[in-house]
């Protein structure tokens, strides 16, 4: 949701913080700030808007050997300078950055902070006032004060705290919000996302919930809230600085759309052996075989990827699949089958809604599999099993390559389980071959960018609304395609089951309303969708068709090579990603950073 960076023991603290915050920009934010200090001096700089606005306020006097920085995405209080982090205690001695939501902040204010002067409306400011009070009014040491505050604070948080009188130590703690320690040479760092530090190091150390960490320039001390020491090994992150650059691309989204054929091939490498046989962890296969029902839980695009795999998983594993929206199930679990297994799909592996479901599933003893792009992410650590997407960092807020990688990864699971069960369809499903065809097919779609750009210009440049329609799996792709279009171009767009139009929605069709119809290879479904296309044309709609070649007609707009029906959502979605991209460009908007959205949604 928002980002944290901290560094101790490096005289370039200001640069490290700014560069780290720039790497976190993709997560979405509306204000930012840094605090840097050395033995005698300290500076706090904050700004509403972009990191570039913050940098413009920083001069050569803003220097230090330690510092903390933050990008904020407003939750409590508007995006203003006073609400931007870092926040200071009453006397200004303590400085804090925070991700998450402190649920009892108003109670804390009422019970502990009478007479304190708060500059903004944030829950974070209350936390740092509380810590300052315990040191300055009650005489506790900083560590005791921090611990005491952590015992009082309820909710989700990742905290990084600096004492400006002794800036050679960052006090860190987390609960439900991601935070990592980064190990430099002669200095150390903290961050909410490894990407913020990958320029400096690829050595990281996890922090678990309800742990407190003292980060000094040459030591890391982890303890629980009672003060018991915790042993923790560091690990090497398989991230490369070049993975997170835009290269010659104008936008990350376009780069990530273009990377999809490579991702498909990487997945083939990751999930096959030297004889081209599909290989999935036997423990995962066994867990799926033992389940009487698979429950896929996810949010947004990842939820749509779940739908796109439902038929394949059911047919190949002979196990019913049910889907749930994480933010709904986190509060109320429906009646479950006798032997459920949960599959959590999450690009980031940090989505708070999905984590809430996982915490409940773990408490109920339900086996779980996380399908994620981020090794070591919270959902990966806390689930029984993990399958990785191997898609490389996804920076653009609008998810593209993660969606297609999620479907492909679950295809490997479906194939492996089905084969182990002796399912005939699974045995005959030559996934490696079929996925190679998909990769080639995506490549030909990508070579038609100019055509798609042209079609979009006339259709979506000025419209206020639009519709995607399709039947069967095309309906699931329509859901994802419409999310992609609305989240970045701000066109109000809905994805509909084509047959449902006549039950209400068709009343919205008027002269010039754009309707994009998806018709993959199923001839019966395609012929019914053709009927629905005629109905909307008769009411004035402007129709664009995306079809697979075996059901194509002469005047179809975008014709794709036919792929295996289980994998058609992967190839059908790519033109819709490009449609969203070009529509957004033509409307003069920032493709990678849509308003109000964050890349990783770590609040519920
Ligand atoms: C849309 C998008 C979101 C995410 C959703 C879940 O383009 O990216 O809808 O899919 O916030 O995020 P993850 O997959 O990280 O759990």
From TrEMBL:
Subcellular location: Cytoplasm
Domain Glutamine amidotransferase type-2: 2-218
Pfam families, alphabetized: GATase_6 (PF13522), SIS (PF01380)
UniProt keyword Repeat, yes or no: yes
Superkingdom of the organism of origin: Bacteria
Domain SIS residues, every copy: 284-423, 456-594
Function as written in the Swiss-Prot or TrEMBL entry: Catalyzes the first step in hexosamine metabolism, converting fructose-6P into glucosamine-6P using glutamine as a nitrogen source.
Protein's name according to its UniProt entry: Glutamine--fructose-6-phosphate aminotransferase [isomerizing]
Protein's organism: Streptococcus oricebi
Source taxonomy: Bacteria, Bacillati, Bacillota, Bacilli, Lactobacillales
């Amino acid at each position: 949701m928002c980002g944290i960076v901290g560094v101790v023991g490096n005289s370039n603290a200001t640069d490290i913080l700014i560069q780290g915050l720039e790497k976190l920009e993709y997560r979405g934010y509306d204000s930012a700030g840094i605090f840097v200090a050395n033995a005698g001096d300290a500076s706090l700089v904050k700004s509403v808007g972009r990191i570039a606005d913050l940098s413009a306020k920083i001069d050569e006097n803003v220097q230090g050997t330690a510092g903390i920085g933050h990008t904020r995405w407003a939750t409590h209080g508007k995006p203003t300078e006073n609400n931007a982090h870092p926040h200071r205690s009453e006397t200004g001695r303590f400085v804090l950055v925070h991700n998450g939501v402190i649920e009892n902040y108003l109670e804390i204010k009422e019970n502990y902070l009478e007479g304190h002067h708060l500059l903004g409306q944030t829950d974070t400011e209350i936390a740092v006032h509380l810590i300052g009070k315990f040191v300055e009014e009650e005489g506790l040491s900083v560590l005791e004060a921090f611990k005491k505050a952590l015992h009082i604070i309820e909710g989700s948080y990742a905290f990084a705290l600096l004492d400006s009188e002794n800036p050679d130590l960052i006090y860190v703690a987390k609960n439900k919000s991601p935070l990592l320690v980064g190990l430099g040479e002669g200095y150390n760092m903290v961050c909410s996302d490894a990407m913020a530090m990958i320029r400096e190091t690829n050595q990281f150390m996890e922090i678990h919930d309800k742990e407190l960490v003292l980060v000094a320039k040459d030591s890391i001390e982890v303890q629980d809230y009672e003060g018991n020491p915790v042993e923790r090994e560091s690990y090497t992150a398989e991230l490369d600085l070049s993975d997170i650059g835009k290269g010659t691309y104008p936008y990350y989204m376009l780069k990530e759309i273009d990377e999809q054929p490579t991702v498909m091939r990487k997945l083939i490498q990751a999930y096959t052996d030297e004889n081209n046989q599909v290989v999935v962890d036997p423990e995962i296969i066994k867990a799926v075989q033992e389940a009487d029902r698979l429950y896929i839980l996810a949010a947004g695009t990842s939820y749509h990827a779940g739908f796109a795999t439902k038929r394949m998983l059911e047919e190949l594993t002979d196990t019913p699949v049910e889907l749930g929206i994480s933010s709904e199930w986190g509060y109320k679990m429906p009646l479950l089958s006798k032997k459920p297994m949960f599959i959590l799909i999450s690009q980031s592996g940090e989505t708070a809604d999905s984590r809430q479901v996982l915490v409940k599933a773990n408490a109920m003893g339900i086996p779980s599999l996380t399908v994620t792009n981020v090794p070591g992410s919270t959902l990966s650590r806390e689930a029984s099993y993990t399958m990785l997407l191997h898609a490389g960092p996804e920076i653009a807020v609008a998810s593209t390559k993660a969606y297609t990688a999620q479907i492909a990864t679950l295809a490997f699971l479906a194939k492996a389980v089905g084969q182990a069960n002796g399912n005939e369809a699974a045995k005959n499903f030559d996934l490696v071959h079929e996925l190679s065809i998909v990769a080639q097919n995506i490549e030909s779609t990508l070579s038609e960018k100019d055509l798609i750009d042209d079609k979009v210009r006339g259709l979506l440049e000025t419209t206020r609304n639009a519709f995607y329609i399709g039947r069967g799996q095309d309906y699931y792709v329509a859901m994802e395609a419409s999310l992609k279009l609305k989240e970045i171009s701000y066109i109000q767009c809905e994805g509909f089951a084509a047959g449902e139009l006549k039950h209400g929605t068709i009343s919205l069709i008027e002269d010039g309303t754009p309707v994009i119809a998806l018709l993959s290879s199923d001839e019966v479904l395609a012929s019914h969708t053709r009927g629905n296309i005629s109905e909307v044309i008769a009411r004035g709609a402007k129709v664009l068709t995306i079809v697979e070649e075996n059901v194509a007609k002469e005047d179809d707009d975008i014709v794709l090579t036919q792929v295996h029906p289980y994998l058609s959502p992967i190839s059908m979605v790519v033109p819709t990603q490009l449609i969203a991209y070009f529509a957004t460009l033509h409307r003069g908007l920032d493709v990678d950073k849509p308003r109000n959205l964050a890349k990783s949604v770590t609040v519920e």
